[in-house]
Write a structure and sequence with these properties.
This protein is mainly β. The chain contains two helices and 19 strands. About 10% of the residues lie in helices and about 40% in strands. The structure holds copper (II) ion. The site of copper (II) ion has 6 residues, from loops.
Length: about 240
């Protein structure tokens, strides 16, 4: 009898454990991982986008395809670098989420990181109708009109996932949301550089993801209070 109850209890526990188990707390002797994501070869010239609607607002400045932005030094902007196999480290703050701004008929930023379950603020700065449409699979898809009088919406995403965001009103508008299960995620800047801090010493797998260039992984060892380097080179697919 006792065994049966214990088995049931253990089974119930399994069901309630989230898909991602991560324990946040104080980090002793944390180190850093930093590096760059570079493009291999000659980057294509940025393509100008056709602004076909709401030209008085959306056409106030020229728009270029941002799905691959390579800086003068060959750095890839908007790549996401994350540790894939970390179960313990600094806390993930879910009380405050990031802001996704629809400004000039463009998503700013193009690639948004958010902790799972954090409130994501979605702003409409343009005074025209936008429609936030997520192509998520693990999280219920969001498809909400945001008329000009609706300056702010809020959404939460419970499941770690990377998915595209599109605007049904403006075909050229596109972006990405990356939902994090832990804090060790970062987006590269215009030089392709990234840095992750307060990483507990240990052996990890580091993954880079880019919307056009795909994924790569490499192993990295973070020494206590030390610095590990990891550089990626990505080619057009
Ligand atoms: Cu729009």
């Amino acid at each position: 009898m006792r065994t049966t109850i214990a088995s049931i209890a253990a089974f119930s526990l399994c069901l309630t454990v989230p898909a991602f188990a991560y324990e946040g707390g104080a980090v002793a002797d944390g180190g850093t991982v930093s590096g760059t994501v570079k493009f291999s070869g000659t980057a294509p010239a940025p393509k100008k986008l056709d602004i076909t609607k709401d030209k008085e607002v959306c056409g106030a400045k020229e728009h270029f395809d941002e799905s691959l932005v390579v800086g003068p030094n060959g750095g890839v902007k908007n790549a996401v670098v994350a540790i894939t196999n970390i179960t313990k480290g600094k806390a993930l703050d879910v009380s405050k989420g990031p802001t996704l701004d629809q400004k000039g008929c463009q998503y700013q930023p193009r690639v948004l990181l958010t902790p799972a379950n954090a409130p994501v603020k979605i702003l409409n700065d343009d005074g025209i109708l936008h429609n936030i449409h997520t192509f998520s699979k693990k999280n219920p898809p969001v498809n909400r009109a945001q008329p000009k009088f609706k300056k702010e919406l809020e959404e939460k995403f419970a499941q770690p996932e990377t998915f595209e965001v599109r605007c049904d009103a403006h075909a050229w508008m596109g972006g990405w949301i990356v939902v994090q299960e832990h804090p060790y995620y970062v987006v590269t800047d215009e030089t392709g550089a990234f840095s992750l801090a307060d990483v507990p010493p240990g052996d990890y797998e580091l993954k880079v993801w880019h919307e056009k260039l795909g994924e790569q992984t490499q192993k990295v060892t973070v020494p206590a209070k030390g610095a590990a380097k990891a550089d990626f080179t990505m080619a057009a697919k």
